[in-house]
Design a protein that fits this description.
The chain is built from seven helices and eight strands, in the order E-E-H-E-H-E-H-E-H-E-H-E-H-E-H. With 266 residues, the protein is an alpha/beta fold. This is Glycosyltransferase 2-like domain-containing protein.
């Protein structure tokens, strides 16, 4: 393992050897779904074929083929009666995975922009003996095919996450991640839409949960072919509100600074 690449560290554990011993059975893949009927079945099939337990969270979709999903071995389908937001769907999936005894959750978007096979890339990036959040760093974000809203949003979020006391990561808007359970469930994240993924990084840093990055692929389909529920204007306002709340808490010392995470690895 001496020649292995060591993932870039946002906070936590630099220069640790890569641990390849994590059993796949410790990880559940959580896939939030909201009107991704065209893509989600293929994403779930490819993920389940890797041997992972898959939790699909239907966040009030109108086009989901539940019968097709239920035919896939190894998945658990959970429903929200109405659309509550991506963060709420992730929280539901994480809680269900923790109750089922999983030590880790891998969040994977349902729109097909990520390769399910790269779940293994994220797992291999976990340094031995640690329980970090692992963020998939999208390597194609600067290409011509990447939406300008994604490029701008990433830079905006990266800057304000650092101002909020969060990690110095480079792709804070990537949805392809590994989360340690139950540490993340204990962070008391308030946001329930896309802002959940931003707030969780800041509050993880406050509690000294390490955050690391590792490169992953990203696939952006031609205009009109990508399913996205990101609304630049409204989500910009929500992001601003989230960062304002976090910065105020940090300035006035109302955030809880935790001890380094010592939860037992499973």
């Amino acid at each position: 393992m001496g020649s292995d690449w060591v993932p870039k560290t946002g906070t936590g554990y630099p220069n640790r050897p890569i641990n390849r011993s994590f059993p796949r059975s410790s990880f559940a893949v959580v896939i939030p779904v909201y009107n991704h009927g065209r893509t989600v079945t293929a994403v779930v099939q490819r993920t389940a074929a890797l041997g992972f337990a898959v939790f699909v969270i239907d966040d009030g979709s109108e086009d989901l083929d539940a019968r097709a999903l239920k035919k896939i071995s190894g998945i658990r389908l959970l429903h929200h009666g109405r659309n509550r937001g991506k963060g709420a769907a992730l929280a539901t999936g994480f809680a269900a995975a923790a109750r089922a005894g999983f030590a880790w959750a891998i969040s994977l978007d349902a729109d097909g922009q990520h390769l399910p096979e790269e779940c293994l890339t994220l797992i291999r990036a976990i340094p031995a003996g640690t329980r970090p959040i692992v963020v998939g760093q999208r390597t194609g974000m600067l290409g011509a095919g990447a939406p300008w809203t994604s490029r701008f949003g990433r830079g905006f979020s990266n800057f304000w996450i650092r101002c909020s006391g969060g990690p110095s990561t480079t792709d804070t808007q990537s949805g392809f991640r590994i989360y340690p359970l139950p540490e993340v469930l204990n962070l008391d994240v308030k946001a329930r839409r896309y802002q959940y993924e931003l707030e969780v990084l800041v509050k993880a840093a406050w509690q000294r949960i390490p955050v690391i990055e590792t490169p992953i692929s990203v696939i952006y389909r031609p205009e009109g072919g990508r399913i996205s529920h990101f609304h630049p204007f409204f989500d910009f306002l929500r992001n601003t509100g989230t960062f304002t709340r976090l910065i105020v808490r940090r300035i006035f010392g109302r955030h809880r600074k935790g001890s380094p995470c010592t939860a037992r690895e499973q």
